[in-house]
Amino acid sequence: MGRRPTINDVAEAAGVSVATVSKAVNGRYGVAVQTVERVLQVVQELGYESSLVASSMRSRQTGVIGVLVADFEPFSAEILKGVGAALHDSRYDLLAYSGSRQLSPEGWERRSLSRLSGTLIDGVIMVTPTVVNVSADVPIVAIDPHTGRADLPTVESDSFGGARQATEFLVQLGHRRIGFLAGRPDLRSSGLRDAGYRRALGEAGLPYDPEIVAIGRYEPETVREAALRLLAQPGRPTAVFAANDLSALTVIEVAAELGIDVPGDLAVVGFDDVPEASQSTPQLTTIRQPIQGLGAAAVGMLTALMAGETPEKTHLVLPTRLITRGTTAPPR
User: Fold this and answer.
1) What whole-number distance in Å separates Cα of residue 50 and Cα of residue 103?
2) Each residue of 220-246: pLDDT tens digit?
3) Short-list 63, 94, 93, 90, CA closest to 77
4) How far apart are alpha carbons 122 and 119 in whole angstroms?
5) DSSP codes of every residue in 9-25
6) Distance in angstroms (rounded) separating the CA atoms of residues 31 and 18
7) CATH 3.40.50.2300 fits 62-155+290-316, yes or no
8) Distance CA 130, CA 109 (A)
9) Domain 5-49 carries which CATH code?
10) I need a labelling partner for 32 at 20 to 30 A (CA). Which of 5, 173, 241, 262 fits?
11) Residue 35 dihedral angles phi and psi, to the nearest 5°
């Protein structure tokens, strides 16, 4: 038999230091996602077993919870804060993992689960996942789940109620032409926000007008194009409800470029209440969902599953509330 590969062999093959290899395979902070991926690939190719992997093979536990996110944007960053706070006094460490842009969203999620589950993590929290049929060797909890199968344990906010309240608020201010900038059609939350918007319009006796509805998908370029379409048309809305805060902030930017005053000529409401919402000028009126609370609730559900217990609830919906700031006013 040949010599068993050492951590020095992994470091040399990956072109990094031994300390970096140790951090990468043990799920510690301070290593770029791309570097972690390269190190784990070399670990797999060489057949190297770190102390963590070796101990996990003996005990079937690693003491690490993985969180898979598509990007480290404001929403997922707040989720990670909530997860980290919930794990602070526990025996678990946190491994945050993001996908390669060279793969499709579904591709990197499946590959990440395959790489991490059963060797590096004891359980995984997936944030706004794309995959519908997903399985792993460890328990999984999804935050802001896909529109697909519902048998995965999930944690989400009251998207329907929040969107309904946002639209009702604009109606109460006197707006009658209220636009909607929608999010990712494949997320359940996006569909519920659309439904809450429609319900509030119907209850107010206002028609649903597809001309003032656009899909931004939470993607910066698409959101910008959608905002331009909404605001540049002759019969533009006097108010816009956006499915997330970053979309709402883009609406405000586009409005400024077009010479449209917010809130004098256009009222804007977002959804999330990420830190950027209170840092904008004017500050954004929004629907606050407990983003860090989503992370903490997911930890509670996941640790119960990892302990072999049945959680009290496997589908949690947390309440939202309206936060009024400077981007909303009655129409002129």
Assistant:
1) 27
2) 999 999 999 999 999 999 999 999 999
3) 94
4) 8
5) HHHHHHTS-HHHHHHHH
6) 12
7) yes
8) 8
9) 1.10.260.40
10) 5
11) -70, -40
C-alpha–C-alpha distance, residues 223 and 250, integer Å: 7
Q: What 8-state DSSP symbol labels residue 307?
A: T
Neighbours of 171 (CB within 10 A): 18
pLDDT tens sequence across 20-60:
887 777 655 567 878 888 888 888 788 765 555 544 444 45
One fold for both 62-155+290-316 and 157-288?
yes
Mean pLDDT of 131-141: 78
CA–CA separation, 324 and 172 (whole Å): 13
Q: Detail the DSSP E strand segments found in the chain.
A: 64-69, 93-98, 123-127, 140-143, 154-157, 178-182, 213-215, 239-242, 267-272, 285-288, 315-318, 321-323
Q: Which two tokens stand for residue 120?
A: 């590096």
φ/ψ of 36, rounded to 5, equals -60, -45
In 3-state terms, what secondary structure has residue 117? strand
The answer to whether the beta carbons of residues 187 and 144 sit under 8 Å apart is yes
Average of pLDDT values for 269-276?
A: 97
Domain ranges of the chain: 5-49, 62-155+290-316, 157-288
Q: Is it the case that residue 145 has pLDDT exceeding 90?
A: no
Residue 20 tokens, joined: 């970096």
3-state SS string over 24-47? Answer: HHCCCCCCCHHHHHHHHHHHHHHC
